[in-house]
Amino acid sequence: MRHTISVLVSNEFGVLSRIAGLFSGRGFNIESLTVAETLDAAVSRMTIVTRGDDKVVEQINKQLNKLISVIKVHDFTGEAHIQRELALIKVSSNQENRAEILSIVDIFRAKVVDVSPRSYTIEITGDEEKIRAITELLRPFGIKEFVSTGRIAMARTPKQR
Questions:
Q1: What angle do CA 141, 144, 148 make, to 5 degrees?
Q2: Would you tell me how many other CB atoms lie within 10 Å of the CB of residue 142?
Q3: Torsion on CA atoms 99, 100, 105, 108, rounded to nearest 10
Q4: pLDDT confidence of 34, banded at 50, 70, 90?
Q5: Which contacts qualify for 101-110: CB closer than 8 Å, 24 or more apart?
Q6: Which end of the chain is more exposed for a tag (fewer CB within 10 A), N or C?
Q7: What's the mean pLDDT in 11-22?
């Protein structure tokens, strides 16, 4: 099963290494990892995506909580949450296909962030499926380069009644 884990940590030297080591030491691959400061510069949020048995991931969560630099661990698995990724896609373009590429960009609510005589660079945000879908539609034009941020996630706010 795929798990998205949010970890609030002290923003200090070596924290990323210790957390990555905890995963590798238990034979788990980190599929995606994003790290950035929060509104408080002394605290960073790590969003980690991994696959594994629920019991083993529960043990990893417990081990994370034992690390001194870890403030809070939250596994979003099975919980209502919002998740997004950002991707930049550089696609080959020419006079004949520019309109078709722009149409695809518009349908996906993406945007062109750079133009050259032979390519468009497209920025898209969304879930993994949305990014995969636009990538597959752009593939026949020739994708020159692709880069993505990895997943970020946040719990949904309960609806008021």
A1: 110
A2: 14
A3: 140
A4: very high
A5: 101/138, 101/141, 104/134, 104/137, 104/138, 108/133, 108/134, 110/134
A6: C
A7: 91
> Tell me: the pLDDT tens digits for 89-109?
999 999 999 999 999 999 999
Q: Can you tell me the distance from the alpha carbon of 73 to that of 61, in angstroms, rounded to the nearest whole number?
A: 7
CA distances from 1 to 16, 54, 88, 126 (A): 23, 7, 28, 21
Provide the pLDDT confidence category of residue 131 given band limits of 50, 70 and 90: very high
- Backbone Cα Rg of the chain: 19
Please tell me the pTM assigned to this model: 0.82
| Calpha distance 156→147 (Å, rounded) | 27
Distance (Å, whole) CA 102 – CA 32: 29
Strand partners for 7: 46, 73
Spatial separation of the C-alpha atoms in residues 46 and 106, rounded to whole Å: 32
